[in-house]
Amino acid sequence: MNRYFSGITVISALFYAALLISPASARQIQSDVPRRMDARPPASLTELSSLYSEIENPDSLNEAQLLSRLAALYSLQAELLQARSENDQEAVDLILAESMAGLGRLIQHDYLRNEVRVQAAYRVLVAEHEFTYGPSDSMLVAFGDIYSFREDVFAALESVRDPLLEDVMSRQFQPIETTVPVPMNRLVESSIGFLLRNPDKHLNRWLSRGDTYLPMIEKIFAEVGIPDELKYLAMIESGLNPRARSWARAVGMWQFIAATGRHYGLEINSWVDERMDPEKSTRAAARHLKDLYTRYGDWHIAMAGYNCSPRCIKRAISRAKNNGHSDPDYWDMYPYLPRETRGYIPMFIAAALVASNPEAFDVPPVQPGPSYEYHQVPVQGMLSLAKLADMASTDQATLKALNPNLRRGSLPPSTGVFYLRIPVGSYDSFVARYDALPESAKKPSGEYIVRSGDTLGKIGRDYGVSVSKLMQRNGLKTTRIRTGQRLVVPVSDYSNSLPDPALASSNGAVIEYGRRSQRPIVSKKAIPPIASGGNIVFASSRQPSGPSAATRTDTGGKPRIIYTVRSGDTLGRIASRYKVTVAQLQNWNNISGSRIHVNDRLTVYSDQNVSKTGSGQSTITYRVTSGDTLGKIASRHRVTVNQLRQWNGISGSKIRIGQRLVIYTQSGRPSLTHTVRSGDTLIRIAGKYAVTVADIKSWNNLRGNTIRVGQQLTVFR
Predict the structure, then answer these.
(1) What is the pLDDT of residues 335-366, one digit of tens each?
(2) b/e code 193-202 from CB counts within 10 Å (16+ = b)
(3) Residues 401, 348 within the same domain
């Protein structure tokens, strides 16, 4: 795909987001352009407007209609060139605004975006726009490892059966009370599986970056009054990458589009993009989330509103109310939200659970990222980053990493100072070298003397301002300028844009946030892994814990069995099966009544030989022979090594020749072999045969969720 179209998969080629919404938005932008009272729109503008009034849905364009619109766009380009030849900047601005609006209406639909003739028109018009206003960040392709991962997760979540069913995760995992609810349903379970599938590719990177940026986010969220657990939202927004850039022109760690970023005080121009400033964007995100919570009164809905438009949320709430929910929450709205927003909250919960306590999910420790610390120094002048890096005794890459908001190879033109971040330990030497610079190098920008060959377009591109703004600020009626002429350049003042006013008087102090706090929002109880049916655990000396432990000591020294409740089970039937009483079951499991649920796990103390359980399991005794290992035996009998250890009280991996092992088999159930095909996942296979992912992994001795095409899996029906 060509350079231009590679960056517009979700309309990222459009330079004015408002132009995509309605013609009224286009007119609002045009109102900023100085126009003569008698100015008449070019003929092609009228033609383009009439063409689009013929039909409301661009998806229904036939060949003739498409060609008519392309012809109108090319007519606009011809009139644009004519306006340039006449130095009529007013007409240039107007025609460019209209051409971008017309182009936007075409390429916002996939089938037209891939149409070769539309791509050709796109290249022509974008070139004209860049010539007038300079390169735009919206022309850049997506950058960051989060976007393809999110797309895969959101697509997979669409196939989850009974997605809102809760209590599907092991009871080993116990959520800790949080301000933002973290329900565990099948969507969350599936999202966790994706995070753990290949942690080196995504999760471990996020955890490493978390050591760098989460301490800063924690501090800012606490100051603004935002729940601490919302810090993990940055993981699913950008992977904690300050330079992340989506197809839809959302930029930075918190993925602000330009309009929202500016609304919350972020400076965005061709020199500086404060959406990529970790601290400033975090403060903006905290205020935005707080505003959304004030509006909706529900943190889940507030996060959904962070991901999609207010109109999207309003529509989902309305549809949920129409379907019987008088005061709908996010999960009531779930069926009526866009696919990405449906997967957004489950993915956040999964990331929060895992990242807050990686050890609970058996995630090995990762190499921590560097501490987020620096000196902040006020400087003036459009000094190059190469020069500044040399003065700080570092390299440009380090300087750019500390100042990701800088978009060019030098400091921006400014009427005041710019606060530059430099590495810790370099403050004194940097200040000495900076003070030694000639005053001319430190002169604030704001005035420009025209040189030979200059044009307003070239000056505007250099300083990141439009030609129309240059003309307005200098009272120019045409674009004609002369050598030696002094122009006022409307540049920004960055001296009042510190993320924290206290930093202005830091006087070389180290700005640091320390290490992240360990605040797990999920804990893991010491319960051995559980297989299908009743699993005997030879650990009779281990006493149950909890508030009712004193009443649950009637074990008689018998082995503990963990039984998984199945459809049709009652306490009476389970008690009869294991030759115990209902009262004992209630005591051992702290049950006050008789109600139990499918997939509940009950503790039973019994020495009964459950040779035939209600689940179709039977037992065999296996005698270890020369060359045997737990792995080989487990594979041969389609169980897991952990199951063998549980059933036989083995803590390590050592077994001896002649040793007898108890194995629970699925001999009472018919089985089949499933050959993995392209596109298969464990979730899809489990759904096809009405079993669980845990069952398939147990039957096939799978440790993770990765399967390969051609692999044969045993499934018991």
Answers:
(1) 999 888 999 999 999 999 999 999 888 898 89
(2) bbbbbebeeb
(3) no
